[in-house]
Amino acid sequence: AMRHLCTPLFLCLWSAAAAAGDVSSAYTQFDIDKTCKQVEPGDEYVYAGTWKCAGGKYPDIIYSSSDDRDFVGFGKSGSETCAFRKTFNAFNTALSPVEWRVKDGKVFAAIERWRVVIDENGNTATWLVVSKVAGKEACAVSYVAGSYPDANAVARTMADSEAEGFDCENDAPTVNSKVGPPDINLSSCSDLAGE
Fold first, then answer.
1. Is residue 101 within 8 Å of residue 109, measured between CB atoms?
2. Continuous segment of H or E residues that includes residue 94
3. SS3 75
4. How far is CA 95 from CA 4, 43, 143, 170, in A?
5. CB proximity list for 122: less than 8 A, separation 6 or greater
6. Is the pLDDT of residue 7 over 70?
7. What are phi and psi of 121, to 5 degrees?
8. Cβ(61)–Cβ(99) under 8 Å?
9. Cβ atoms of residues 100 and 107 within 8 Å
10. Which end of the chain has fewer surrounding CB within 10 Å, N or C?
11. What is the pLDDT of residues 114-159, one digit of tens each?
């Protein structure tokens, strides 16, 4: 008799979770020299070039570097997204892999760790950049300091709770940090475009 009591309860819990849409993580590793295709050559000055890193069943990663600062966009038109127009003011490197947040088989957010120079001696700190990824749109939703307690879990929570409802044009990204805000423009995309 005990077995019969558990079964409906288990089924009810399972169907509630399935209805809510299971959120999971997937990862795309990228290596500019090995797995990405250069789509724009660099120049003899500070621009290193732009690369397209195929995402396979996930969005493409569009990566560019200029003056030792990286720019990253997501999706087929990644270089036209707000995410691609923004980078940290200090020298920085966008790191592999990109963590995708996936719901019902569809990517809705990306989380990427960046290494950012924080002083004239070349010391660095890391930031997790949480981006909304939806069709032709990609923009920063939240910045989580790598030193923040449970930074990875906080970044996932920010992605899951904020990304889908985030308005790239009008919403400004949030910051989770005990070391102050990141050295980056925290404007909304429309404010950024107006500069």
1. yes
2. strand 92-103
3. coil
4. 51, 23, 15, 27
5. none
6. no
7. -85, 0
8. no
9. yes
10. N
11. 999 999 999 999 999 999 999 899 999 999 999 999 999 999 999 9
**Nearest to residue 131, comparing CAs of 120, 123, 143, 115?**
143
Cross-strand partners of 133: 138
Do 138 and 129 form a contact (C-beta atoms < 8 A)? no
Place of tokens 């990109």: 98
Average pLDDT over residues 80-100: 96
Instruction: Check whether 48 has a pLDDT greater than 70.
Output: yes
Contact 55, 39 (CB under 8 A): no
Indicate the pTM of the whole model: 0.88
Distance CA(24)–CA(105), nearest Å, equals 9
User: Which string of DSSP letters, residue by residue, matches 99-113?
Assistant: EEEEETTEEEEEEEE
- Region 157-175: what's the mean pLDDT? 96
Question: How confident is the model at residue 55, as a pLDDT?
Answer: 86
Q: Is the pLDDT of residue 43 over 60?
A: yes
Q: How far is CA 99 from the centre of its chain?
A: 7
CB-based contact 128:112 (threshold 8 Å): yes
In contact, 95 and 152? CB cutoff 8 Å: no
